[in-house]
Amino acid sequence: MKQLPLTFLLGCMLAGPVQMVQAADRDADRSGFTDDDFAAHVAALKKRLPSDDFTIIIEKPFVVIGDEKADVVKLRAIQTVRWAAKRLKERYFDKDPHHILDVWLFKDKTSYEKHVDQLWNTKPTTPYGYYSSHHRALVMNISTGGGTLVHEIVHPFIESNFPRCPAWLNEGLGSLYEQCADRNDIITGLTNWRLAGLQKAIKAETVPSFKDLCGSNSIAFYSRDRGTNYAQARYLCMYLQEKGLLQKFYKDFKEQHAKDPGGYDTLKAVLKADDMEAFQKEWEAWVMKLKFP
């Protein structure tokens, strides 16, 4: 469900000693936080660690904390967090997140559920992972793969760069990169597990219009036919990606948001589509030809 290509995954499940590693050769930090800020953050973080089995790695603008072996945590920080953040910033985002954010990588389901309860006195609502703006943390059961981590990395960048971005694009863009690869140094979404449900909905003629999708508020998007909403948003983003229009759509929508809060008019303009019903039929035919795996 939530996996990157094997290049970006590691299967080791062993714990390692607490240590702090500064990953080398990363891009310059654009958040305004200094090395001293990160050092103070790590010092405070060490006092909160649930056990001695965690490794802490500074990978600006994030701090990665994991309870796998230290070299495994470091590789995840470099090969997933750094890899994704660098390419997302190159495509979309001028600003880093507003705060130093923690990326918690728990080695398995048991560790994930236990430590979420221990650290935040709550239970996760997803078996894979989530982003909590309140706790300034990305929280992962990393045994399920790196795709959820890349998905959640999108959200704090959206928060700092496009704070009024509607849920459909926020989740569509995040979902696009749940399954992704490097195509000529460009992060590229691939087909994933959401395809089957979307194709089923297309056959049943229950997929909303793009006008309805763009017009949905957060409550509607997250609570009404959530699975289809995520899939429709994801594969709209993927269609734009494959046509070379996704970056332009994001940029134009961000600039036009005040007069086009849902992005529907911007979408029509970028697609050069006066007849959106005809476009939806074209898009649905395109989706039906896709395959996963």
Quick summary of this structure?
This protein has helices at 35-46, 70-91, 109-120, 147-161, 167-176, 194-203, 210-215, 218-223, 226-242, 246-256, 264-271, 276-289, and strands spanning 19-22, 55-59, 62-66, 101-106, 129-132, 137-141, 180-183, 186-189.
Count every beta strand, where a strand is a DSSP E run of 2 or more residues: 8
**What is the molecular shape?**
globular
Count of alpha/pi helices = 12
Sheet-strand content, in percent, reads 5-15%
**Elements, N to C (H/E):** EHEEHEHEEHHEEHHHHHHH
Q: Mean pLDDT, nearest integer?
A: 91
Biggest sheet details: 6 strands, mixed
Query: What strand line-up does the widest sheet have?
Result: 1-2-3-4-6-5
* Percent helix: 40-55%
> Helix- and strand-based class?
alpha/beta
Span of the ends, CA to CA: 11 Å
Low-confidence stretches: 1-28
Rounded to an integer, what's the Rg over CA atoms? 19 Å
Can you walk through the features of this model?
- This protein has 293 residues and is of the alpha/beta class.
- Helix content is 49%, strand content 13%.
- The strands form two sheets. It has a six-stranded mixed sheet, with helices on both faces. Strands 7-8 form a two-stranded antiparallel ribbon.
- The protein is globular, with a radius of gyration of 19 Å.
- The chain is built from twelve helices and eight strands.
- β1, α1 and β2 form a beta-alpha-beta unit.
- The N and C termini lie close together (11 Å).
